[in-house]
Each structure stands twice: as structure tokens, then as C-alpha cells.
Amino acid sequence: MQSALTGFIQLLRSHELRVSPAETLDAMAVASTLGYADRERLRDGLALSLAKSAREEAILLRCFDQYFGRELAGEKPSAATPAASEAAPAPDQDSEDARQLQDGAAEFPELAEALQSPLLQQLLEDNRTELSLSLGQAAAATGLGNIRMFTQKGQYTRRMLDALGEETLRRAVVALEQADSPLLELLKGYRDHLRQQVREYVEREYLLNAQGHNRQFMDDILRRTRLNQLEQRYMDEVRELVRKMARKLAARHSRKPKVQKRGQLDMGRTLRRGIAHDGIMFHTYWRKVRRDKPQILALCDVSGSVAAYAKFLLLFLYSLQDVLPRVRSFAFSSHLGEISDLFREHPVEKAIELANWRYGGATDYGRSLEDFAELALADVSSSTTVIVLGDARNNGGDPKLEIMQGIYQRARRVIWLNPESRRAWGSGDSEMLRYQSACHFAAECNNLQQLERIIDQLLRLNH
């Protein structure tokens, strides 16, 4: 059963539940202690050893029911289709069917060969346990656990039928068909019943194994797609992906206590260190909360050409409240205004919509920088990071480069994220090359993968 448990852990990983090798060994120890007979007890034990949050526990319980809740071959749910019910021979006909086929075996050698196979014997006896074991062995032999795409279902169905030995049934059916034997429909019924069981087995494995991998594949595509080219029907998936990426970064960069010379005495660590000296506390350790938390000022161009990018930057930043508690946001196009209150009063998505409605329009970077200087330039200090998201296309106006240079001199760092390709910087009415001289860092940023990497670097620098 270790292979079954290993398969279950692989399924959990495909659903983005982190399971380390040490946790895998813990899960195996739990399974060997509790056994597999009591399914509910095993499920609760694995949940205690593997799930580290309520969200992970919900994923584990759902995957457990899917993975270990498989039915025996031939068992049908209450809503079984009529076609499937007709394909399965009735149990009270099994002995009569076997007798008729035995009588015809003398005339057809192919039928006699098929009757000698364990597969047809299992079908004639309606031995669901043995048939389920045979299906499991065929699935392992054909690598069915590697199924990922729905287009592979037919391929794996044929492989499993070949591994089960269905070829002998096919030869017998062909021989009976050529002789126009009355036994043809009887044998075809058993063959069709077998094929139905294999198709259903492959379908269950596809739904079980492909769901997590397909989600990862889709997430990878969405990460690499330009944000202004994402279709509306994918917006819910993209928002969830942004939250998931933010959770990962928050877990990676959550503030850890540092050794201090003042503050609250870390009694546990001090006592442990004193064990080597017979309990004498030669070394003391202190805990102290840092109060100089960094501040981030985000200036987002919400004009039509850049609005999609600004929406996801703001969604990303405000999903990181545990790591970046001091975020102030500004939206601009022809003029600039602070929108931090919108995020306090409304959900993130609604706040972004209101910001686009209030400040959208033709772009004037010079006027917007003047507005920022009046509103927040005095708050920019050596602990401030200023992030500007925009294409720097100023429609031929005055770029007010001196204001950007003033921000550069006061801030800890100035980061400019431009959704345009670097080859387009400085072309036409783009002022990007001039603004770049007043930035500590400027980068092309037009998809979630690039945005995640830049935010990750920002969080590293803020530690």
C-alpha cells in the first residue's frame, strides 16, 4: 500500500499542497500505525500530519475522497446511464451464458482460447474484485497515472485493453461474426461491458490526476500572457492566481524575529544556551519588534493603455498587507490623486474600478508629478520606496523631470515598471529614457511572472 500512499502524495502536490520528503515519511508512519481498514481514521491521521492550514486540510480531504473512494469495477452510481446498465450482463444469466459459450467453444477455437483467459472468466463470473485488481494492474503497467490531457483518454483506454488481454476477445468476436453465429451478440455484450469499465476507469483517473496538473499548466500560461491581452472570462482565475502568488511571497518574506541587545528577554533560548554551563545564563537573548517599517508609494497610470497593468499591481500590493503594511496608492492620468482610502473602504477589485473611473483619461505625466509633489513629496524619506507603473508616454507635454529627480534624491529607491518593450522606450512621445535617469531600477513588466519577480526582489531589499 506504500505505492498507493505515494500516489496520493503526488496528487496532493499537483494540487499545490506542499509535502516535503520528511512529511512523506511521517505520513507513511501514520498509515502503518493506523492501517488502511478504517478509512475515516486514516483520513484524519493524514490530515493531521500533512495539512498545515484550513485551506490545505480542505484540499487534502477532497483529494482523499477522490483517491481512496474508488468503486469496484462494475459498480454503478445511482444515476447510472441506461446504456451502461444495458451493457452489463445480469448476474442470474452468468451461468447460462457460460454454458452456451462452452458449447460453442468446440466449433470455434478462438472462442475456446478466450474462455481460457482469466479476463473472460472474471466477466462471466461477475467477479468485481478480481476485475478491479486487473484494471489496477493494467493501469500501473500502462502508466495511466501520467495522463494529463483529455485527448489522451482514448490512447490510454486502448493500452489498458491490450494489457488486459482484450485481443483474445476481439479475435473470438471476429470469428463468430464471420460465421454469423448466434453467440455473437452474447460475446459482444461481455466485450462491450469490459470496454465500458475501462473507459470509466480511465475517466476517473483523468479527473483525479489531470485536474491539478491542468490548473498548473493554465496558471503558467496566465503568468506569461500580457495582462492587457487576458480575456474577460479568465479574470476570476487571474485574480485567484495573483492571491496565490501573494500568499507565496508573504510566506517567504514574513518578518522573522532578529537577535537584539534590548527588548523582551527570550527566556527559552537563554535557558537552552545555559544548559552547557550548568544552567548559568552567561548569554542572554532578546526579542524586539522593529518599528521603522518601510513605506511604499505606488503611482499607477490608469489611462486606457495601462489600466490593466495598474489593476494587477495594486491587487498584488494590497494582497501583501501582512508583509507590506504601509502602502499608499496614487492613480493618475491627466491629474493625480491618492486612492488609499478607497482600499480601506471597499474590496480591492471595487477600489480599483473606482480609481479607474475617477482618474482615467488622457495622460499628462508632468501635471501628475506636480500633484504628487503637493500631496506626498514631503513624506518621501530614506525608508520610502516609490513604484511608478506607466508607459511614460506624455503626449508631448513637459515631463517635469526635476520632480522625478527630487523624488530620486529623497527616496530609498525609485522603481519604474513599464509595460512596453524596452525597444519602444524613447520612441515617439515616450519620455522613458529621460525618466530612467531618475530611477534606481527600471524594468519591462507586462505579465504576472515579471511582476512576481520584481515584487519578490522588492521584498528582499526591504528586509
UniProtKB/TrEMBL annotation:
**InterPro entries xref list:** UCP010256, Uncharacterised_CoxE, vWFA_dom_sf
Q: Which segments carry the region annotation Disordered? A: 75-100
Q: Point to the regions of Low complexity compositional bias.
A: 77-91
Q: Which domain of life is it from?
A: Bacteria
| Pfam families for the chain | VWA_CoxE
**PANTHER family cross-referenced by the UniProt entry:** BLL5662 PROTEIN-RELATED, BLR6139 PROTEIN
The protein here is known as VWA domain-containing protein
Which organism was this protein described from?
Parahaliea aestuarii
